[in-house]
Amino acid sequence: MLEADDLPLEPGDYVVLFRDQSPVDVEISNEPLARRVYSVNTSGRVISPHFTTHIRKRDRKCVVTGQSAEFGGFACYGLFEAAHIFPLALESQWIQHGHGRHISESSTLADQSHSMIHSTQNGMLLRRDIHNLFDSYGITINPDVS
């Protein structure tokens, strides 16, 4: 068993185990690595409120913690942010790899962006602190696990 350290693993065959010693299924992918970056608008481009409005309307709570954005029958979104799953800051990679092809909603719902990165299918409502953790890889979300 290897002890945790900051050194990279040497090439070889490894068995990864859960804490209960059962094996973890690890799948190798040839998908390009997209470094997680803070998904903020640094381009100066005005982002339509469509994305945020529709994410809020659809989710109405933090999709990670389950904390509701509705208090006493009123929506209060001050602690919540609509997060891009694929970071807006990496839109050029989104376009280069054709990720918009995975969006099935109509283009009118996906904003004016030809790349479809502002689609609600590329978004989720998160509490602001959870959004920061997500952007810094403090947490990750596996869409294949319910």
- H/E series, N to C? HEEEHEH
Largest sheet: 2 strands, antiparallel
Specify the structural class.
alpha+beta
| Radius of gyration (Å) | 18 Å
Task: Provide structural commentary.
The chain is of the alpha+beta class. Helices cover 16% and strands 10% of the residues. It has 3 helices and 4 strands. The chain has helices spanning 50-59, 91-96, 128-135, and strands at residues 70-71, 74-75, 80-84, 123-127. The strands form 2 sheets. Strands 1-2 form a two-stranded antiparallel ribbon. A two-stranded antiparallel ribbon has the order 3-4.
Write the layout of secondary structure elements.
Elements: H1 50-59, E1 70-71, E2 74-75, E3 80-84, H2 91-96, E4 123-127, H3 128-135
Antiparallel strand pairs: 1-2, 3-4
Relevant terms:
about 10% strand, about 150 residues, alpha+beta, 3 helices, globular, two-stranded antiparallel sheet
TL;DR of this structure?
This protein has 146 residues and is of the alpha+beta class. The chain has 3 helices and 4 strands, in the order αβββαβα.
